[in-house]
Amino acid sequence: MANMDFEACYRALELPFGAGLKEVNERWRKLSRIHHPDRHARNPKNYQIALEKQKQLNNARDILKKWFETNPHATPPGSTSGSQQTQNKSANANTSNNNANKSQSNNTNSQTKQGTQSKQQSHASQNQRQTNSQAKSSTSSQGASAKPPNTGWFTASELKLTPMQDLVEKIDKHCCSGTDPSFLGMILAFAAIFGPLFVISGTLGSVFPELPGHYPDWLMMTMLGASGWCTCYIFRWFFAEAELIKLQQKEMYFRSGRSLGDTVDLAKSIIEKHTVPNGSWRFVAAGGATEATLHFEEEVFPEVKRSRCLKIRFEARPGAYAVVFAMEVKATSPINSFSCKRVAEKVVTDLKKELQEIAA
Predict the structure, then answer these.
(1) Radius of gyration of the chain from Cα atoms?
(2) What CATH number has the domain bearing residue 287?
(3) Total domains present in the chain
(4) In this structure, is residue 158 part of a structural domain?
(5) What is the pLDDT along the chain (360 residues), one digit of tens a residue?
């Protein structure tokens, strides 16, 4: 695919040879909408055919775009076979006319001249072939070297963790990084299970010292229920906070078969689709990137609300063979950021459905 000549590029785009860059881009967009792999996702065979067709269209557009960027007012050179045939035909026609008009005494001179001209034409055609082959090889090598990398170009913003989040990250790395549970992890698990029960029983004993040493059955069941609820909440909060921290440390890259503008519009529509009842997204352009911010309040306990801020910064650039989309997620919330985690994960999941994720 990388060695396509200019005539093959025009044939792939279904354009007449010599069409300008504007016509090339318009036809590429039109054919990309028709042959995009996402339109054939349910049929694996048609999906592979559409994927190869899309790669062929992208490669043809890239080769012609590279030529017009270097030579904005020139037409790409065609193959030498057509011009050589035209020259041979015109030479034969001129030779027959000259032989018909000239006398028989000049046949020897005309044949000598014809042989000289044919030798010169053969040398000229060989030189033309060498020039075209060198131009194609230089164009392909320049295009390969000039193609930007797919990953590594997106600069993530600094991640600022609260002291509580920093503690959660350290515990998660120490206790949950290996396959076997560590001793510290088991101690913390037992503390999370039995700690709330001891706290509740100690609180009842200090508030109501007249209670007997053996609590009534109904009070004991109530204490066990409250302790179980606290234990479940602690585990849920810890793992949610740890997953959100890991998500904020990632730089995610995706490959898109759409244009730059369509890719950015798709990302905005996906982000706007996932929000909370008392918040709305706000998009601000920051250099080449776009930052989406969501401010809202989350109820951590009955009648107790805390402010939350979720930011998603993303940018799209031309990649080696397609548009590359990069993004990061940052959440500002002291603790209990369940809603931030839920919204961020839904956005990432929908982007993975629409785009192809690239390993960073």
Answers:
(1) 35
(2) 3.30.310
(3) 4
(4) no
(5) 444 588 888 888 888 888 888 888 888 888 888 888 777 777 888 888 888 888 888 888 888 888 888 887 778 776 544 444 444 444 444 444 444 444 444 444 455 455 555 556 655 566 566 655 555 544 444 444 444 567 777 877 777 777 777 888 888 777 766 555 566 666 777 777 777 777 777 777 777 666 656 667 777 788 778 888 888 877 777 888 888 888 888 889 998 888 888 999 999 999 999 988 888 899 998 778 999 999 888 777 777 777 888 899 999 988 767 899 999 998 876 555 778 888 999 999 999 999 988 876
**Residue 211 identity (one-letter amino acid):** L
The parent domain of residue 45 ranges over 6-70
Encoded tokens for 278: 């008392």
| Domain identity same for 206 and 128 | no
Provide the sign of the torsion angle of the four alpha carbons 264, 265, 266, 267, taken in this order: positive
User: Per residue in 273-287, is it b (16+ CB within 10 Å) or e — as a string?
Assistant: ebbbeebebeeeeee
Distance CA 36, CA 49 (A): 10
Do the beta carbons of residue 244 and residue 337 sit within 8 Å?
yes
Q: Which two tokens stand for residue 238?
A: 């810890």
